[in-house]
Amino acid sequence: MNAWMKARMSKIIPVAEMFAADHRDKVEQVNGDVYFALWLHLVDIQLIRLLGVSYLDMPDLDWRGWYESDLGPKEALHDALDQWKEDGDLPGIEYADSL
User: Fold this and answer.
1) How many domains is the chain built from?
2) pLDDT digits over 20-54, tens only?
3) Which of 19, 50, 55, 92 has its CA 20 to 30 A from that of 25?
4) Do residues 77 and 46 touch, judged by C-beta distance below 8 A?
């Protein structure tokens, strides 16, 4: 569990338990790490709200690395959007005010 999640431990534990029960497929995709799967789901919710696409629809990035670096979902999404924009995968998208 990363530091962002630990700082919200009292809220995360019950949510993680429900998430694991409801989204076994997502947990299995990340080798059984419930907390990382939940964190990635939180990233995905933000991305879908912002651009209407899932992180799975975008070019691969090091989500695990950002998680292990203790970033929160919003910070990781900012980094991802910056990287996609830099790589030319997100031309002309302005997002700073939307997050």
Assistant:
1) 1
2) 999 999 999 999 999 999 999 999 999 999 888 89
3) 50
4) yes
